[in-house]
Amino acid sequence: MKTPQPTAGRTRRPPALAERLFRISERGSSIRTELLAGLSMFLASAYTIVVVPSMLADAGVPRGAATTALIIVAIVATFAMGLFANLPLVLAPGLGGVALVAYTLVQGEGVPFGVAMGIVFWSGVVFLILTVLGIRNLVTRIMPTNVRLAIGSGIGLYIAFIGFRSTGLVVGDGDSLVLGDLAAPGALLALAGIVLLVALQARKVPGAFVIVILAITVVGIPLGVTELPGSYLAAPASPGPLVFDIDVVGALAPQYFPYLFAFFAAEFFSATGVVLTVTDKIREATGGKAVDLKRPFLVDSAAITGGSLIGAPSVTTYLESTAGTGSGGRTGLTSWTTAGLFAVVLAFIPVAGMIPSAATAPVLIVIGLTMLTGFRKVDTSDLTEAIPAALLVACTLLWGNFGTGIATGLLSYVLIKAVTGKFKDIHPGMWVLTPFLVYFFYAAAH
Q: What is the Cα gyration radius of the chain?
């Protein structure tokens, strides 16, 4: 009788269906890793369930309807990204676009909410057309190599800054930033979370992000950092008041064109930056195997248009997707896990709202600082290459918008190369893109 062979140490292959859908083994991952990565990505992005509806409520939008609309869009768009693009990305209304709708258009300019949604709708249509025609993918190919390498670092620094700011580790003081109150319970928990997270990652503990977020949330209860909801179950409010509350004709008035371009440019560069950062991680894990960029671009383009129809403005690929790749997520199963957790939240909306910023800040800070290591690949021996890359990183932080940071890096590259006479280094496509970049800054200044 044959002696059974030991199974310890063997790598268990994912079920056939999961393998066909997501190619998990091909990307050097496992179902357990993908599920944990999806949970990390959800926890890192869960704040949007509270923050975005609150911003829209300031503009007179019903908070309950906005919350339900946001969750529905996050579920559908994130699920579609996993299915169609097989990438670990989470989508939801972006804070920058929501701020433009709520505070600039509706409150500042008195633009009706339906017209604002119409502007978002048309920005998504333009986005979708450029994606179908392959122009968006072309833009990513004509990007200067060193500028593209700096995108991850720029996003990383911005992510870390969001983490520091959200928990009061840094605060505004007039025109500058100063050290926050480190004795405050939230700040102390965030600092402890950073140390714990680094220690767990150094020891290669699986699910480190999830452990830290859950631990701080629980410890924060007696310290008053985590606020317990009055009820843990609640039926979602109807999104009915926002569904098709959109004026696509009125949005085409000439005076709204600068806003249309502002939405488009911000969405273009920010979403493109996140997608490139995540796909670069996957390429590293698969030995440089190419990832089809057109598929994720199609999904987030369609999500912008679809989201505007139900009152969820400016849907974009979230920075917090890096929490998924940082936890080892490499396939669309990570996205499906995140989408499934958003679906669960529909019944437990109060629970999602109890995760404090002190719990998510360590994840953002550690992931962001880790991403800064990518700048070492930039050619710093040539100032005409190094300065545009450095400007991208610096302006992302100083202006608080990584879309603007990427635009700065691209435009400064063309200008610096032209002034120094290095015209051969400039891809012909960059000359086509330059007028749009100039107009982007003109529209932003006005």
A: 22
Angle of helix 402-419 relative to helix 257-285, nearest 10 degrees, comes to 90
Q: In sequence order, what E strands does 201-357 have?
A: 315-317
Instruction: Say whether 169 sits in a helix, a strand or coil.
Output: coil
Amino acid identity of residue 316, one-letter, is T
Model-level pTM? 0.70
What contacts 376, CB < 8 A, 6 or more positions away? none
> What whole-number distance in Å separates Cα of residue 329 and Cα of residue 372?
19
Which of 118, 100, 90, 88 has the alpha carbon at shortest distance from 23? 88
Which residues are CB-neighbours of 338 under 8 A, at least 6 positions away?
38, 39, 41, 42, 45, 78, 90, 324
DSSP 254: G
Give me the residue spans of the domains in the chain. 25-445
Q: In DSSP terms, which residues pair with 316 in a beta bridge? A: 92
DSSP symbol at 424: G
pLDDT in 10s for each residue of the chain, 446 residues = 444 444 444 456 667 777 888 888 888 889 999 999 999 899 888 878 877 887 888 889 998 899 999 999 999 999 999 999 999 999 999 877 887 788 878 987 889 999 999 999 999 998 889 888 877 667 767 888 888 888 878 878 887 887 898 888 988 877 777 888 898 999 999 999 999 999 998 987 867 877 888 899 999 999 999 988 777 777 888 999 999 999 999 999 877 876 787 677 667 777 788 888 888 888 877 776 767 788 998 998 899 999 999 999 889 998 889 888 888 899 999 999 999 999 998 888 777 667 888 888 888 888 888 888 878 888 889 999 999 999 999 988 888 766 678 888 989 999 999 999 999 999 988 898 888 888 878 876 76
- Any idea which residue has 């969750």 for tokens? 71
* Residue 418: burial class (beta carbons within 10 Å; 0-12, 13-18, 19+): middle
Element (DSSP H or E) covering residue 72: helix 63-80
DSSP collapsed to 3 states, 313-376: CCEEECCCHHHHHHCCCCCHHHHHHHHHHHHHHCCCHHHHCCCCHHHHHHHHHHHHHHHHHHHH
Closest CA to 356 of 211, 175, 228: 228
19, with CB counted inside 10 A (0-12, 13-18, 19+), is middle
> What residues contact residue 273 under an 8 Å CB cut-off, 6+ apart?
151, 154, 155, 402, 403, 406
